[in-house]
Amino acid sequence: MAVISETCRAGLEPDALRAAVLPRLRKAVPVDALWWATVDPSTLLFTNAYREELPSDSVPYFVDNEFLRDDVNKWTGLAHERSGVRTLAAATNGQLAQSSRYRDIFEPLGLADELRAVLRTRGAVWGFLCLHREKGDAFSPQEQGIIAQLSPPLAAGVRLGLLVD
Q1: DSSP at 130
Q2: Measured over all CA atoms, what is the biggest interatomic distance in the chain, rounded to whole angstroms?
Q3: Which of 115, 137, 154, 156 yields a CA-CA distance of 20 to 30 A from 125?
Q4: Taking the model in full, what pTM does it have?
Q5: Is the dihedral of CA 133, 15, 77, 6 positive or negative?
Q6: What is the 8-class DSSP label of residue 140?
Q7: 112 within 8 A of 69, measured Cβ to Cβ
């Protein structure tokens, strides 16, 4: 994790930061799919999104769910919480089917638990990170802790990269 934090201080533009950090992050917290976005701190709207192992035709469903549907563990709510990190399993008390995002998007894709992290530093949100696991493999409290610990350096790295760029 020290290498990830160090990389975040290098002043890499956001795409280069993501490319440098994700392989190390995946070693610390294995995932089957992920989504990473830079965010406008004023509006909390995504400014640049990247995905791995999520089909491009699923993007409209994610956008619809995030902005037009009631569901648990939404970005805007999570951004206003102190920790800014939560799994779908925790948000639904282990009943994933309570989430329309799970029923309509994840389950058909063979995914189950989701770990969302708000990338925040100095009180401002600079990015969102969403990690996905296939069925039967929920994120552990230790893995959530790792992501919570990395969120501020990742946010600082995104912020610095945007300023340098």
Answers
A1: E
A2: 43
A3: 137
A4: 0.95
A5: positive
A6: P
A7: no
Beginning with the edge strand found earlier in the chain, give each strand of the sheet holding 111-121 in spatial order. 46-52, 33-39, 124-134, 111-121, 85-87
**In 3-state terms, what secondary structure has residue 43?**
coil
* Contact assessment for residue 39 and residue 46, using Cβ atoms and an 8 Å cutoff: yes
At 8, list the tokens. 């975040």
pLDDT (tens digit per residue) in 85-126 = 999 999 999 999 999 999 999 999 999 999 999 999 999 999
**Residue burial 35-49, b: 16+ Cβ < 10 Å; e: rest:** bbbbbebeeeebeeb
Of the chain, the percentage scoring pLDDT greater than 70 comes to 100
d(CA 144, CA 125): 18
Residue at token pair 């795409």: 15
Token pair belonging to 146: 């790792």
Task: Decide: 117 and 148 in contact? Cβ < 8 Å.
Answer: yes
- Rounded to an integer, the average pLDDT of 46-72 is 95
d(CA 151, CA 81): 13
Kindly tell me the burial class for residue 124, based on how many C-beta atoms sit within 10 Å of its own C-beta (0-12, 13-18, 19 or more).
Answer: middle
pLDDT at position 136 is 81
